[in-house]
Amino acid sequence: MDPSNPPSIAARRAAAIARHLAGLSPHDAAAAGATVAVLEPSACLCYAPPESSEPAPAFSLLELRALLDGHHLRERDWAFRAMEESPLFCPRRCGGKVLVSPDYNEGKEGQREATMRRVGYLARRGVFRGWLTEPGPDAELRKLALLDCLGVYDHSLAIKVGVHFFLWGSTIKFLGTKRHHDKWLSDTENYVIKGCFSMTELGHGSNVRGIETVATYDSKTGEFVVNTPCESAQKYWIGGAANHATHTIVFAQLHINGRNEGVHAFVVQIRDENENVMPNIQIADCGHKIGLNGVDNGRIWFNNIRVPRENLLNLVADVLPDGQYVSMIDDPDQRFAAFLSPLTLGRVNIAVNAVYISKVAVAIAVRYALSRRAFSVTPDGPETLLLDYPSHQRRLLPLLAKACLMSSAGNFMKRMYVKRTPELNKAIHIYSSALKATLTWQNMTTLQECREACGGQGLKTENRIGIFKAEFDVQSTFEGDNNVLMQQVSKALHAEFLAAKRKKQPFKGLGLEHLNGPCPVIPDYLTSGTLRSSSFQV
C-alpha cells in the first residue's frame, strides 16, 4: 500500500467488514500479510448515551425506585443478577451485558425449549423456593416481586411460570385440602411435576358456566369419568399442554346420578414420567401465534378418563363414596364464584406486568428522544433533540406520568390481595378486574405511541417495543376479556350505588366514597384548571 495515498474511510470500513466475515482478528490478519484496517467512527456518527451529558438528577434514584417498585428491592436485584450471570438470559455476543428477549428468529419449538431451559436454571438457583409452601403475606409479596422481574425479561417466561405456580399451583393450594397439598404442592414447587390449567374450551371462554366437559361420578368404583362429549368441548389455549405439562386441573360439569351439580375442578394426569401422553387422552398443538411462542399452548380431549374420587378439589364441595354431594356453600352462584377465585391472582399479575412493560417502553422511547436530533433552528446550528419539541413532550410525558400512577395502583392491588380476608373478596375481585382491564389497555396504548415515537428504530426486534406489542396483545383477552370484566365491574358498582341509596347510607369502599359529598356546582365556563382539579366531577 502506498503510504502517500492512504485508503479512504469507506475502504477501511470495507476491509474491516471483510476481515470480520473471514473470522480473522486484526492480529491474524497482520500475520497473514493482510492490510489491517482500523474501523474508526466518523465524527458525525458519534453517539453518547443521553445520561452522559445530563446533569445529576435532583432527586434520589434509589428513593424513586423504592416508590415505584414498592417492595422487596434486594430480592429483585438478586433475581436480575441470577439472570445476568447465565448465558441463557444474557447473551454477550453483542458485547457487554445486554438483556434481550429470546431470539425471535427461532421457530416456536426453539423458543419453547429455551423457555424451559430458563425455568430449569431459575429452579436450580432457588428462585421458586417457598412459592407454594411458605405461608404469609410477605412470602406472597416476595413471590410477586420475583415474577415482576421475570416478566420484564421475557413474557413467555413469566406466563410459563405463572401457569405452573399461579393457576395450577394456587388452585391446588386454595381449592384443595390437605390430601392435595401433601401430594402435589412440594413436587410442583420443585418442578417434579409440571402443571397446567384446563378451563377454556373451543366453544366457551368467558362463559365458564357453559363449559361442556363432563365428569360423571361412578359410585361402583369411586371414580370420576372425565369426557369430552363434542368438539366444542375440547380444552383450548391451555398453556403448557402442548409439550411439557404432566398434570392439569380440569374444569368440568359434575354429574351425579343424572343431576348436574355445576362446574367443579379435578386433577388429571396427562403425561407419564417419560413425558408420554396418557392413554385415552389426545393432545394437539395450537400452533404458531403472533406472540408468546415460548409458551406451548395446546388442545386436550378426554375419552372417558377415570380419575380417583380424591382428585376432586374438595375445599368448596365434595362427593362422598356413596355419591352424596356435600358443600359448605349452599348458594350455587357463590359456590361457582369460589371455584373461579384462582383467576383473581392471575389478573393481579397481568395488571402489574402491564405496568412494568409500559415503564420499559417509556424508558426506551424517552432515552431515544434524548439522543435523536431532528431539524435545526438556525441554518448552521445544532439539530434539536426530539424531547425538546413540545409535540414530542405531549406524546411521551403523559405516558410517563401514567406509568408512575399505574405503579402505585399495581402495588396497592398486590398488598390488598396478600392481606385478603373473606370480607374483602368481593372488593378484590372488582379491583383486580378493573385494574386488569384498564392497565392492560393503557399498556397497549403506551406501546403503540412509544413505537411511533422511536420512528424506524421502534421496528427493530432488539429495541423490544415492537415485540412487546405482539407479546402483550393477548393481555386484553386471557384470564378475562377486558370488556366482559368492565361490564362486571360496572354491574357491581351500580348494585352498590342502588343499595346505598335504598338504605340511605353512605357509600363504603369500591372507590365510591367521593359520592358521599354534596353534588358539585358545575361552572358555566370550564377552564383547564377546573377540569384538572381533583374535586371536579361530572
From TrEMBL:
GO terms for cellular component: peroxisome. It is found in: Peroxisome. GO terms for biological process: fatty acid beta-oxidation using acyl-CoA oxidase; lipid homeostasis. Keywords: FAD, Fatty acid metabolism, Flavoprotein, Lipid metabolism, Oxidoreductase, Peroxisome. Residues 196-304 form the Acyl-CoA oxidase/dehydrogenase middle domain. It is an enzyme of class 1 (oxidoreductase). Gene3D superfamilies: Butyryl-CoA Dehydrogenase, subunit A, domain 2, Butyryl-CoA Dehydrogenase, subunit A, domain 3. PANTHER family: ACYL-COENZYME A OXIDASE-LIKE PROTEIN (PTHR10909:SF352), ELECTRON TRANSPORT OXIDOREDUCTASE (PTHR10909). Belongs to the acyl-CoA oxidase family. This is acyl-CoA oxidase. It comes from Oryza meyeriana var. granulata.
